[in-house]
Amino acid sequence: MTTILPAKPVHSTFSEPVQFRARLQTYSNLPPELTIRAVDFEPQNARYFEAYRRSLPFTESGQVIHINTPHARRKKRDPATPPDPENVQRALFRARRRLKDAVKELSPTALLTLTSRNRLNDLDRAYRAWGRFLTLVRQADPEFAGVVVPELHASGLHWHLHVAVRTVLGHKLLRRCWHIALSWLDGVRVTKTLRGAEAPGNVDLKYGSRGSDAAGRAARIAKYIGKYLSKDLHSQFGRKSYAPTKNISVAESQRFYLAALSAEEARLEALRILGFSEEQAAAVSFWTPDEKLAYVAFRESQWPPPG
């Protein structure tokens, strides 16, 4: 897509306060996703008129107007203060979207679950074990990549890890590396796979069904591990809720405004910009929960647009 697209609203935000913006997220090995959202400029217009009425400069969203006072620094949230529920929901939405993008960029081959015998009793310790595990597996598979989501056990006493992975390693070697990593936390050196009561934890490795497409597998794994984000986000607000390995790099999404002023016309316009003909665009099915949002994950047969 070489067309220069409008990064700013196409129409005046005063004459047309509701306009549509598209977001195209691309991945290295999977077809992209397209999201079209209605943007309401009424709150921005109201702030502009209020600033004009008070003869003060216009401020961007989220900024505060200060009169004859130095610029106020943003205060850090007191950890003892319960987080605002709206902030938690916004953080959850952002985390789920970024997690999904990281998993789709990964294009995982399997789902890995790492458990322990009550050894991961805090989140920092769980991430330390994960870091040591990564060091070990990369000695055997330098291209190992994964996205990890910690989950607090139902007892509330310890953590285990759900990981979307792309690797050529088998269950036996992964289990051995996990045992070494868990023992390392306690300052114990082991050089073999431990069994029975000696085992400090376990490894469960599940591969996708044969014949399943990569895009569908990635979407299912992202949805599965994404549900664990919300379980402990409130109590662990402000902490890292998931972690992709450093060799996963998600491309920056392309955002552009559309000239269309209705939801249906906006979807057709976005598809035309991406290279779909009228007939091809009519065959694309969007998920549309309401008039403000439309979403589609293109299938491999739809991308790139047959032309």
* Spatial separation of the terminal alpha carbons: 13 Å
Helix content: 25-40%
Question: Main beta sheet, described?
Answer: 5 strands, antiparallel
Uncertain segments are: 66-72
Category by helix and strand content: alpha+beta
Sum up the structure in keywords.
307 residues; alpha+beta; Alpha-Beta Plaits; 5-stranded antiparallel sheet
General description of the model:
The protein is an alpha+beta fold. The chain has a domain of 160 residues: Alpha-Beta Plaits, CATH 3.30.70. It contains eight helices and ten strands. It has a five-stranded antiparallel β-sheet. A five-stranded antiparallel β-sheet has the order 6-3-5-4-7, sandwiched between helices. It is globular, with a radius of gyration of 24 Å. About 2% of the residues have low confidence.
Brief overview:
This protein has 307 residues and is α+β, with helices and mostly antiparallel strands. The chain has eight helices and ten strands.
Write the layout of secondary structure elements.
Elements: E1 18-25, E2 33-40, H1 42-53, H2 85-106, E3 110-116, H3 123-140, E4 145-152, E5 159-166, H4 171-185, E6 201-207, H5 214-226, H6 229-232, E7 243-244, E8 254-257, H7 263-273, H8 278-282, E9 287-290, E10 293-297
Antiparallel strand pairs: 1-2, 1-8, 2-10, 3-5, 3-6, 4-5, 4-7, 9-10
Helix pairs in contact: 2-5, 3-4
